[in-house]
Every structure is written in C-alpha cells, then in structure tokens.
Amino acid sequence: MYVGRFAPSPTGLLHIGSLLTAVASYLDARSRHGRWLVRMEDLDPPREMPGASTAILSTLEAFALHWDGEVVYQSKRHHLYAAALAQLRAHELVYPCYCSRKTVQAEAQGMGVDGVIYSGRCASLGADTHLCTNKTPAWRLRVGAELICFQDAIQGWQQQYLAGDVGDFVLLRADGFWAYQLAVVVDDAAQGVNHVVRGQDLLVSTPRQIYLQQLLGLPQLNYAHLPLLTNTLGQKWSKQTQAPALDLRKREALLRQVLVYLGLPQAPQVDSMADLLGWAVQHWQLGRVSRQAIVTV
Ligand code: GLU
C-alpha cells in the first residue's frame, strides 16, 4: 500500500511553498488510495516558533487536508535515532568529531553541493575516543567513493558522489541535537512510508538518505521533488524571504492557485474545500507537475 507523508518543521507558519508540498503529497497519496501521514520535525528547538505545530495542524484542517493516524513528533523519538546511530557505530561507519564550526570552515576541502566539505581531520579517531576526553563530540558518517543514483518522479535521473559532493556528514550534533538526515530516514522507515513528495530544496539531501537506508538495511523510497515556488526575485519562499503566512479567509483562492501550480486544469465551482480537494484527487497527475521553479505573484 502507498504510504506518503507531510513532514513540516515547526520553525514558522505554513506559507504558499509549504502548502504546495502538503497538497501535492496529499493528492499523490489519495489518488493512489494510499495513507497520508503528518510528522512534526521538531528536532531543533532553538529554531522553532512557539505554537507553530498547533497552528500548522489547524491550517491543514482548514484546507481539509485530513491525515491518517496520530501525528508523530520527532522530539519524542530520540531513542529510535540513538538505536540507528548505535547500529552504525557497531559497524564503524561513524566517528566522533571534535572540530569546531570554525575549524570545519577553515580546513574545508572546498565547497560541496550543500555547504563545505569536511576535511576528515577526525576520520581516523576510534569510536571510543570520546570516552577518553570530557568533550562531547558530534558523530559523523564516513562516506566512501560511491556514486548514488536514483530516478526522481518529477526531476528525472539524479546522481551524486557523496565523497566529492558532500563529504562525511553529521548525524548527531555536539550540542545533542539529531541531524535531519538521520531522523528522516529512521522515521520514514519506522512509519512504513514508501513515497516521498517534497520540495526541490531537499533533492540534494536525497542521496545521503538513500546511503543511510543502504547502511541501515532499510528499503529505498520513491521520491518526487516538487518545483520550487519563488518570489519575483527568484528566491525560494521561506521564513528568511519573509513568506507571508497563509490567510485562511482566502483559503479557497489559495488552494485553487496551488492546484494550477501543480498542473491541474481549472477547477469547477464547488461547495466546500473538501469538494475542491476531492475534485483534485480525481484529476491529479504527477506527470503534469513542472520541473521548473514557479514564480508566484
Ligand atoms: N522537515 C523538512 C522541511 O520542513 C522536510 C523534510 C522532508 O520532507 O523530508 O523542510
């Protein structure tokens, strides 16, 4: 059975870009008679906005985006991430890293696809080194020379050399926070998710997630990365670019706009948001979603 999900981070309220992701993942799941889950990715409290989780859930309800089962909160699942890290440690696939952010920047092996590439300074440290110091390390995953390839249902064929494009990456930060890459892989597998529909900004992360799935013996998922929605300056809508929160009084117009961005034909007049979504489920075709960024007005 198809299992999809929407996994917002409660760092702010939903905006047009996150609504696009919610709607597309919902339509793809429902049009294939699948389940659609919601997972709150609340792993980084300093970046979170008080009340955002509740506001996100009530916004989804206002758009008639009803999820299956209970909402899962990553903040309550640290034991699962710790078990995955222990599994990787047992195979010496991770090492403790004591480098400060400054050292990482200063000694970087150049710029990768998602920030600087780590020099490997701590790569030869044994997994027990942290027992001999009173410092808390970060834990990095050792990547090899492998090329990770996959077919994205919207963006097409993708490939990435983890060593040359990303480098050894952090799974647990020295401040005790779990990295998104590990948590997302563990949770998608634990929740039985098999289809991921999300924003194109995460395309660059997918090879790291596929690599973790391979190392942890988890199934590889089907991925579809949506086009980015940008403002007229070509910037992705986000908190940093001051994306306006959704005005729920205009929810029908907003949903209609999102459906057009997703390549659906003009929707007929309907009596309710649920009817509009129901119509969209009937007419949804993933193959009609554009690869190109969409400039919103
Ligand atoms: N929590 C992530 C975000 O809001 C999305 C994670 C995902 O869909 O894999 O950007």
Derived from helix and strand composition plus strand pairing, the structural class reads alpha/beta
The major sheet is characterized as: 3 strands, parallel
Spatial order of the strands forming the largest sheet: 1-2-3
End-to-end C-alpha gap: 38 Å
Contiguous uncertain segments of 5+ residues: none
Assembly type of the chains comes to single chain
Descriptive overview:
With 297 residues, the chain is α/β, with parallel strands linked by helices. Helix 1 packs across helix 8, helix 1 packs across helix 9 and helix 3 (78-90) crosses helix 6 (180-190). The longest helix has 16 residues, at 16-31. 32% of the residues lie in helices and 18% in strands. The protein has two domains: 3-77 and 191-295, Rossmann fold, CATH 3.40.50.620; 79-180, Glutamyl-tRNA Synthetase, domain 3 (Alpha-Beta Complex). It starts with a strand and ends with a strand. It is built from nine helices and 14 strands. It binds glutamic acid.
Strand and helix layout:
Layout lengths: L2 E4 L9 H16 L3 E6 L11 H11 L9 E2 L4 H13 L3 E4 L3 H6 L4 E2 L2 E2 L21 E4 L5 E6 L3 E6 H4 L3 E4 L7 H11 L4 E5 L6 H11 L5 E5 L2 E2 L20 H11 L11 H11 L10 E2 L2
Parallel strand pairs: 1-2, 2-3, 11-12, 13-14
Antiparallel strand pairs: 4-7, 5-6, 7-10, 8-9
Helix pairs in contact: 1-8, 1-9, 3-6, 6-7, 8-9
Features:
297 residues, alpha/beta, Glutamyl-tRNA Synthetase, domain 3, 3-stranded antiparallel β-sheet, 14 strands, elongated, binds glutamic acid, Rossmann-like_a/b/a_fold, metal-binding, EC 6.1.1.-, Glutamyl-Q tRNA(Asp) synthetase
